[in-house]
Amino acid sequence: MKKYERLAAELEVQISSGLVRPGERLDSVREMSRLKKVGLNTVVRAFELLEDRGLIVARPQSGFYVLGPRTPSGVTTPRLRLSLPKEVSVPEMVSSVFESAREQGWIQLGAACLAAELYPCESLNRFTRRVVREQPRLVGTYELPPGHFEYRRQSSRRLERSGCFVEPSELVATNGAMEALGLALRSTCSPGDTVLIESPQYFGILQALQQLQLRVVEVPAHSTDGVALERVEEALRKFDISAGLFIPNFSNPMGALMSDEKKAALVELFSRYDVPLIEDDIYAELSFQGSRPKPLKAFDTQGCVLTCSSFSKTVSPGLRVGWLAPGRYLEKVKALQLSSTMGCGSLAQHVMASYLASREYERHLGDLRLHCSLQVERFSRLILSSFPEGTRLTQPRGGFVLWVELPKRVDSVELYRRALEEGISISPGVLFSASGGYRNYIRLNCGNRWTAPLERGLSRLAELATALQRTGA
Length: 473
What we know:
It is globular, with a radius of gyration of 22 Å. The strands form four sheets. Strands 3, 5, 6, 7, 8, 9, 10, 11 and 12 form a nine-stranded mixed sheet that branches. Strands 13-14-17-16 form a four-stranded antiparallel sheet, with helices on one face. It has 15 helices and 17 strands. α8 links the parallel β6 and β7. It folds into three domains: 64 residues, Arc Repressor Mutant, subunit A; 134 residues, Aspartate Aminotransferase, domain 1 (Alpha-Beta Complex), CATH 3.90.1150.10; 239 residues, Type I PLP-dependent aspartate aminotransferase-like (Major domain) (Aspartate Aminotransferase, domain 2, 3-Layer(aba) Sandwich). The chain has 473 residues and is an alpha/beta fold. The longest helix is centred in the last third of the chain and has 27 residues.
């Protein structure tokens, strides 16, 4: 082996044996060079190799931190036949999943929400006071579509970091990602039209499709790299598809990440069939490897991609600030927003613009990425060691949710009901498909801090799942 490969192998052994634990900081490049008596370039290349393997992560101006040996993935890819377009009917229990997220003292594993203390609340309050002090009449004005220019400029700069160039004039400020998705669907589809979606799919998107009276065709997605392109082309050829809707970067619930090659092929496919392609890019900034992956928009040359995102998962769910890059549907989106919500709130956009322009966002993002990666690893280890034999789970490279496949005898709806009785909230798998599948799957939110009550709650969930496996009830 070359010197850097030998050093990487040595450090990997230390990580896999637990000598260096997840969350611990490695020696700096200079310190490691002195300790191991190798050149600085050797250490840098060894660290890059470990980062590529998902064993360590870089935090800006702080160093390299251990993620730990990753748990094996292996959830079953759904075997879906392309059936006729179907109407969406989301179970009523979706409401109780969101309601339980408000319960104080509960173990919140259901709704995909970070703990409130993980958001930069003090910083945002400081920026809010500054904006109000400098512009005291701001709360007395409308910020009509497409929204505050500086907020759109800062959002455009964030996209540019990933190699996606969208002018501020091509962005529309929205009330979170869900309004962006709703506008994207309304600008490309009419009631009764058919949308092509991946399976499993986030139940909030299924709800939006149901409310807009849209039908769906589901295509299976792999837990590692997302939707199967051959099935997508089969659906486009076979059915009258009005739009596609996918989550290419750390999909919800599986955390799948499409390669750049696959993204480019997907965009080319929809361009060839002249069908608009909507992407939900809300988790893209939460990459465990530090660099934000490219959105589908980066490969769009025809204006057929509509990219939706927000800062609800990284900065503040309360500010309700998102954005939409609607491509050739820009004017239609602005007209739709003007007639429905009159645009996004003025104060929220100004506050977010100021925060994004500061250096605080990048520092906060580094801390948040490390927290999410460590939490996913902790959850994974406990699940594999205590849940029923045969339990399988995904190995996401970003975001903060886990998709867990339980033994077939475990009914996730019954598990959900029993867990609720003990103050534990989860999301049963049946919520993530228009076909009512995934009966033995659950999605778990890893966004809270690791505490003794959380660990006990997760262990208790394992006991409930084990009891269901034994009885089959």
